[in-house]
Specification:
The protein is α+β, with helices and mostly antiparallel strands and about 170 residues long. It has one domain: Bacterial Protein-export protein SecB. It has three helices and four strands, in the order αββββαα. A hairpin with a 2-residue loop joins β2 and β3 (about 60-80). InterPro entries: SecB-like_sf.
Amino acid sequence: MNDKLAFVLDHLMVQSAFPSKILFEVADWYDHRQAFDTFTRLTWRNADAMIGEIEVEAAEGPQKIHIFRFKISTRTRLVRMGPEGLLGDDKEPAPEDVVFDANIDFMVEYLVHGCLPTDLDEDAVSEYSLRNVPYHLWPFYRELIQSLAVRARIPPPNVPSFRVPKSHQKPAD
């Protein structure tokens, strides 16, 4: 890990994660009494970080705090498996096989602690958004997508636990 990313890690503290847009469509043909095999297709896209400055009241008087807000766009589809079986990630499922299609945007907010946002290297913040933000968001995303499916009387999609890639794990001693 480079020093600039380590600096970002030391100065961003996750505060909240919440959905900012939910588009959830269930196929008209779907009936919860049907039984068939399905697979889940997940896609994510990170957007640029936004910086905010908020004035809050404190015992010593008004203070300014800085917030980094990252927007993450997700798309989750539960797809009826056809005779060709599980489709590779490079192939789009047929629209008539999509049981539900959920497009959800999330905001993940971080408190900038111990420095100003301008002290954080832009490339390191970008790397942070690709590696750390999904890790922080994953449990919120997983819970929401599965809850929406259950409420719509659809089998919950298979959303695995988030795993840190081997390239980002601390080497064994």
